[in-house]
Amino acid sequence: MSFRKKTIISIIIIVALVVTFFPYENSIKSSETINHIKSIVLSKNNVNLTAGKKTVISAKVSYKSDSEGLESHIWSSDDKSIAKIDQKGIITAVSNGTTYVLCSSKSKDVVVRCKVIVRHPYNKVSSISFPQSVIKMNIDDKRKLEPAIKFTGNKTYTTEPIEWSSSNNKIAKVSSKGVVKGQSNGTAYITIKSKFSGKKATVKLNITPTKYIAFTFDDGPGIYTKKLVNALKKYDSKATFFALGRSVEKHRDALKYAHANGMEIGTHTYAHKNLKKCSKSTIRSEIRKGKKAIKDTIGVYPTLLRPPYGNYNKTVSKNAGVPMIYWTVDTLDWKHKKTKYVAKSILRQSGKWDVVLLHDIHKTSVEGFIKALPKLKKNNYELVTVSELYQIYGKKLKPGVMYYGPLRSKK
Description:
Elements: H1 3-33, E1 37-42, E2 46-50, E3 54-56, E4 59-63, E5 73-77, E6 83-85, E7 90-93, E8 97-105, E9 111-119, E10 125-129, E11 134-137, E12 142-144, E13 148-151, E14 162-166, E15 172-174, E16 179-182, E17 186-194, E18 200-207, E19 211-218, H2 225-234, E20 240-243, H3 245-250, H4 252-260, E21 264-267, H5 280-298, H6 314-320, E22 324-325, E23 329-330, H7 339-349, E24 355-359, H8 363-378, E25 381-384, H9 386-393, E26 402-403
Helix pairs in contact: 2-8, 5-6, 7-8
């Protein structure tokens, strides 16, 4: 055999050995060093973000063995137009909507996901408070709670969601709108909490035999209004103030104080004219100016109207814009200006479901009411606003209609 042929045969043998040996070796090495992912656990399963905000999510990865050559995991988003995620786990909210970010093994054998909700920026709750520390109601009664909630931010944004809860649903249940229902006698605590900022307030609720009554104060505010409000606060009570526009302009701080402490503000027109004897244009002006004075002072329009002297006609009804409220008990405090008389008149004449007429511009009226207040509470009266009285009774008030008390259909 020639030297040339021997050389060719040697090269062929060497090539054959290389081709057969190295692929085999590489396949063994590959199968031995790739350690596949067994499971992935995310640090968050749900994320809430406003558009433009970011958050970080991490993954705890476990493997099938302890050998080297770990399989990598990959982040992705179902809808990048709503939320994006990079390979460091940083989620960026893009626009309103709901999507999922995924963490998966490179082989796609293991996949876990986190729900992402993106919303417009909202007005955060800065504070929540109840005007009362203790509230009473009967079994089976329904009562809507009205906490004072302050928000921060742009008024064009939606407000931060709030959540309600009861410490004991067997005593009292509360709906998502803050309507409480008495279930059985006892004590429960009702809590309202902002969903994201964590602000909260709690009120004590006693389910016990209770008599509801609404006290109303006309012609103010005046120099005695704050003293009256402080007494109501002390005894966990509320009232309705039918304010005159011209009085509001002189005592704005007093009306602000009443409103800030949970009192209901109604209008008594601007200048206390007998609307039944006024022209159409005067009626409209008196109602409009009275409402505006209140709105300019407390930031919201009045919820009710009490025409002076209780007098009204079709034109008044047409222009009222809110329910009109008469009274069931007239204490004549404006006529008999004596503290003892007012106190005795309140205790002697008042009963459950009554709407009582008083005036906070008279010192004797305010002091007489304050004198009667502890006895009213001792006799299981719960002092509520006019709107609350009708709501608890189950009667819905309509704009332009005169109401003479929950138990009466007419005067």
